[in-house]
Amino acid sequence: MAAIDAIFAAPVTTPDIAPEKLAELQALVESRRPGFSLRAPFYTDRQLFDLDMRAIFGQHWLFAGSIAELPEPGDYITVDFGPYALILLHHDDGSVRALHNVCRHRGARILTEDSGTTGNLVCGYHSWTYAPSGELIHASAPGEIDFDAGCFALKRAHCRVVGGLIFVCIAAQPPEDFDQVAEIFRPYVEPHELGATKVAYQQDIVEQGNWKLVMENNRECYHCDGHPELACSLFPTWGLTDETVPHHLTDVWTRNLSASAALEQRCRRYGLSFEVVEELDTRVVGIRISREPLDGEGESFSPDGRRLSKKLLGDLPDFRLGRCSMHLQPNSWFHLLGDHVITFAAFPIDEGRTLVRTTWLVADDAVEGVDYDLEALTHTWKQTNLQDKAFVELCQRGAASPAYEPGPYMKSEYQVEAFVNWYITRLRERLQ
């Protein structure tokens, strides 16, 4: 076990950055103007992307999936964060293990499918075989000299499951405040009982944009006039205040305030957490979470706000619970409703491409065609994701232009500023 623990703690790094380039990157970080968007290289430069992989995705807790995606022992999913390839495997003891998807012989990818079921892990190149826990159990060939198989287990990443959400950290020493943040969001998430859900649908979209543009776009609703399907149920006044609501949204703002008061009463009656907790750039594991009303009937993301599945999740007492909305830095956001849950994750590919994965979860006893219509369940966010893809790609193309320069954030974009401030702070820490 000592050898396995050593493998577990081994740091994994990206290639070194040349000293002259490092000085250039440090100057870029220090030149960031608060309240303004980032300079173009943050979205277009390959070596800055490599720094992101080291300083952000190689150091911090990342959302990777949900327990509904690998419900039984032996089930697995594979995920890639830039150069890091991981296997998430549901172990026989009920835990989830995170293993680097890299054979210890000559580095071949071991599992090549996005998901499946497996016993031992067998590399398809030379049949090196690993136990589900990562130990090397077979690497023999005629005439070979014996070697210490205990020194060639698969490298591990840290893995935590909280409320049915799976998080991984590649760093040798993960950020220490994750447990504190988990205790913040646990009471919001646990009533939805993700362990008793199943995947109704999963959508993968490759956006031709840097991962930070994906996250910035998600962190504001200034652009929500471009989401007509979502505007049916999601109040387009998100992020606004009495002082910043434009005249054409006055009626919507009034309706939102009334719905918020009614939702707060229901949450107090049922003992559900609803208060806003916003620590997006004041923690290493940045978070924002709250329970917020939906328009119309206030039940789900439908044209009239009515439920999209007949099955309540967990032991929730009411469909009309709006949405529990959570943002976690650096790569995820979530909507938890009475009838279904939607998880979103950004997986960087390179400096100009990001995989955005959206997963719809429903109660595990919900029957498609009886309890929910799949097209109706997924319609709003399928369309919204395609619209967001177009917005991100417009920004990526603009950032590549010599005419681009950072522009000011509006007051309603304060969460974008918080994300960028969190990001710059993390880079500064790493560069120092």
UniProtKB/TrEMBL annotation:
Residues 61-168 form the Rieske domain. GO terms for molecular function: 2 iron, 2 sulfur cluster binding; dioxygenase activity; iron ion binding; monooxygenase activity; oxidoreductase activity, acting on paired donors, with incorporation or reduction of molecular oxygen. Gene3D superfamilies: Naphthalene 1,2-dioxygenase Alpha Subunit, Chain A, domain 1 (3.90.380.10), Rieske [2Fe-2S] iron-sulphur domain (2.102.10.10). PROSITE patterns: RIESKE (PS51296). Keywords: 2Fe-2S, Dioxygenase, Iron, Iron-sulfur, Metal-binding, Oxidoreductase. Its cofactor is Fe cation. Transmembrane segments: none annotated. This is Aromatic ring-hydroxylating dioxygenase subunit alpha. It comes from Brachybacterium saurashtrense. The lineage of its organism: Bacteria, Bacillati, Actinomycetota, Actinomycetes, Micrococcales.
